Amino acid sequence: MQGYLDHPNANAKTLRDGWLWTGDLGQLDENGYLTLHDRAKDMVISGVSNIYPREVEEALLTHPEVSEVWVVGAPDPERGEIVVAFVVASGATPPETAALDAACPALIARFKKPKRYVFVKDLPKNNYGKVLKTELRERLAAMAV
Q1: The pTM is what?
Q2: Angle at Cα 15 formed by Cα 12 and Cα 17, nearest 5°?
Q3: Same domain for 123 and 78?
Q4: Residue 24 sits in a domain of what CATH number?
Q5: Which domain holds residue 15?
Q6: β-pairing, 34-39 with 44-46?
Q7: Do 53 and 70 reside in the same domain of the chain?
């Protein structure tokens, strides 16, 4: 990749020393296999803990009343950020938050559990079907006012 057309700031962040920095976070296991966890810019930093949204999303998707879920961080004066889950119900009514909370401990650590759930009819997506996290963050900011 030679760079982004007419975006020198994006080029400076992404292209460094001849390498393309994607912003993906992952780890190599003892056999050399790479496991991708999430994007660095999407990680929620709550207190001293790094929380990968994908891990929380996968836990919540095990609940039968959840069709789609997307997790973002919301500003919090005490913890820096809190985990907020935008949930699309699979049925006519959203699941109880207590039921969603109960689905989490078996799959993720307690501190990763969402502090807030926002039930939505659908998630905002671009033409390719990718969820627009910036729009979800904007919705959160508007709710806080």
Answers
A1: 0.79
A2: 105
A3: yes
A4: 2.30.38.10
A5: 1-40
A6: unpaired
A7: yes
Tell me how far the alpha carbon of residue 97 is from its chain's centroid.
18
Q: What is the pLDDT of residues 7-57, one digit of tens each?
A: 999 899 889 888 888 878 788 999 999 988 777 778 899 988 999 999 999
Give backbone dihedrals phi and psi of 58, rounded to 5 degrees, phi first. Answer: -65, -35
SS (H, E, C) the chain: CCCCCCCHHHHHHHEECCEECCCEEEEECCCCCEEEEEEHHHCEEECCEEECHHHHHHHHCCCCCEEEEEEEEEEECCCEEEEEEEEEECCCCCCCHHHHHHHCCCCCCHHHCCCEEEECCCCCECCCCCECHHHHHHHHHHHHC
> Tokens standing for 47?
């207190």
Beta-carbon contacts of residue 86 (< 8 Å; ≥ 6 apart): 69, 70, 71, 72, 118, 120, 123, 136, 139
